[in-house]
Amino acid sequence: MSSSSSANSFEDGKYKTDLLTVGLSSCCWKKPSSSPIPQSPPKRLLVATPVEEGEYPVVMLLHGYLLYNSFYSQLMWHVSSHGFIVIAPQLYSIAGPDTMDEIKSTAEIIDWLSVGLNHFLPPQVTPNLSKFALSGHSRGGKTAFALALKKFGYSSDLKISALIGIDPVDGMGKGKQTPPPVLTYEPNSFDLDKMPVLVIGSGLGEISPNLLFPPCAPPGVNHRDFYRECQGPAWHFVAKDYGHLDMLDDDTEGIRGKISHYLCKNGEERRPMRRFVGGSIVAFLIAYLEGDDSELVKIKDKSHEGVPVEIQEFEFKN
């Protein structure tokens, strides 16, 4: 089934979407009576899926540092409504600076998809794992790049068809990368075997919100540096006047959710940035997974009338 479902990727798509929680002890939607109980995922998952019968590409979204996967539910709804199954694992609740455990866990979850995911989706929905995209926000973006690059001894048997970094961050600044460092500071050094890459940046991410907190996406370890090291095809969009956490849900619950409104320099509201991130992801995936680049070309040519933010910077490598 084609995911090319809407004339405007920045608006909701045509597919009705459901949000599912798959826990470590969850059972399944469709288990033949003669089959053993399917294995639960290595980590708890939040899954946004179309409910209409069909086969859909799969996108994995890795959360940012100390954030909850539930904070991305509105972004997941948006992408899924255009005909994608979006999976967001909760990689940890508490973590130090080292990301090796997240890289390892992500590889294990991706390997689980081919044997377990189908059992936890509605019976009429089939995941198309030949069209699998890996994405991540902030520290999750670093983890996504690390796994795609196969740099640290962990990889997945499932081929990654596309890679997306949502304001990715590799530490506190140049020379202050968190282990293991992903950036090499060598242009075009990321050898991803022609895997298409989208890097989305926030214009306010490099600015400190106040005297107490540093920038959430500091220069030297942020989206510009990740894009600079990508080979083509690679796209780089930067949203002006929006911050590092502005793609999260409008209402993020709990102490961490409340802090997320003050930790970074933010825009006036989250909805425009969330729509921009979701629409850019949809346009990129439809172009590279479905072969329809009309939305992406309109964004590139600045002829798309539905872009909800001002694009501060745009770059493309073929």
What labels would you give this structure?
hydrolase; 7 helices; 318 residues; 20% strand; chlorophyllase; globular; alpha/beta; Chlorophyllase
Query: How big is the Rg?
Result: 18 Å
Indicate the proportion of strand residues: 15-25%
Following the backbone from N to C, one meets helices and strands in this order, namely: EEEHEHEHEEHEHHHE
The pLDDT mean sits at: 93
pLDDT below 50 for ≥5 consecutive residues: which ranges?
A: 1-6
Largest sheet: 9 strands, mixed
Q: Output the structural class.
A: alpha/beta
How many beta-strand elements?
A: 9
Number of helices: 7
User: What percent of residues adopt helix (DSSP H or I)?
Assistant: 25-40%
Measured between the Cα atoms of the first and last residue, the distance is: 27 Å
Inertia-based shape: globular
Give me the side-by-side strand order of the main sheet.
Answer: 1-2-4-3-5-6-7-8-9
Protein name: chlorophyllase
Keywords: Chlorophyll catabolism, Hydrolase
Pfam family, one: Chlorophyllase
Enzyme class: hydrolase
Describe the structure.
Helix content is 25%, strand content 20%. With 318 residues, it is α/β, with parallel strands linked by helices. The protein has a nine-stranded mixed β-sheet with strand order 1-2-4-3-5-6-7-8-9, with helices on both faces. Helix 1 packs parallel to helix 6, helix 2 crosses helix 3 and helix 6 packs across helix 7 (294-300). The protein is globular. This is chlorophyllase. It is an enzyme of class 3 (hydrolase). Pathway: Porphyrin-containing compound metabolism; chlorophyll degradation. Belongs to the AB hydrolase superfamily. Lipase family.
